[in-house]
Design a protein that fits this description.
31% helix, alpha+beta, 248 residues, 6 strands, single chain
Length: 248
Amino acid sequence: MSASFALKWIISSTLLGYVLSQSFDTSFIQKCSRKDPQLNTCLKNSFNGLKPYLISGIPEIGLPPMEPLKIDLLGLENNAGNIRIKGLFTNVVNTGASNFTVKEVRSDFNKFRLDLGIFIPIIKSRGRYEVNGQVLLLPILSNGEFIAEFTDVNAIAKIYGKQVIKNNEAFMSIEKIVVDFVMKGARFKVKDQGHQQLNEVINQFLNQNAHELVQEMRQPASQSLSKVFKKFLDIVFSTVPLNVWLTE
C-alpha cells in the first residue's frame, strides 16, 4: 500500500520540476524528448535521478520531504473471501519509500499511456487503525495503534490519459489510474488499548497469516490507492502543459 503512495511523489515531483526551469536551477533533471527512440530509458533515468531531491523536498514549489511520507486517511473494504472487513487508517507515517528504483517505464503518448514499475526494498509504516468485520469465523472489532513492515515491494501504476486544450495550451488529462502491487514479506503489530490482553493473540494471528491477509486485501487496497493517486495527479497534470515536461 505504501509502495503505491510512493509512486505519486515520484511522478509529480518530476513533472513539477520542469515547471521550475525559469525560476531555479533544474540541471539535475534529465529532460526527455517525445522523438527520442530511447524515451522510456530517458524517463526511467530522470525518475531515478530525483531521489536525493525527494528526500529533502523542493521548498520552491512547496513539495514536502518524502521522508517521512505522511498519509492522513486511507479506507479499505473487502466483502469477499475469508476476510471481510472495513478498515480505516489515519495519521499514517511511512519511511523507506525514497529508496525506490524505477525498474521500467513504458510510454505511448499517441494514446497517452504511461506505465511505471517500481521496486522498494523496505517500507515501514505506523499510525492508527479502526477495523470492523470478520476473519474466517472470528468477529473482529478493534482500534488502536499499528506498526507494519513491508519488504521487497514491487508496484506498477498504469496511467490512462488524453490531451485537452486549455487557454491554447495542451495538457494531459488523467482518465483512469490502475495501481497494483506485490511484496515478498509483511509483518504487523497492533496495540488495541481496549483489549490489551488480546494483543498477543491478534499479533500472532496477523503474522502467521500475513501473506493471506495481504492477498485478500490487495484488490480493495489497490482500488483505494488508485483513487487517491488519480486525485493527486489530476492537480499536477492540469497545471503543467505537455510541452513543459515532454519536448518535441
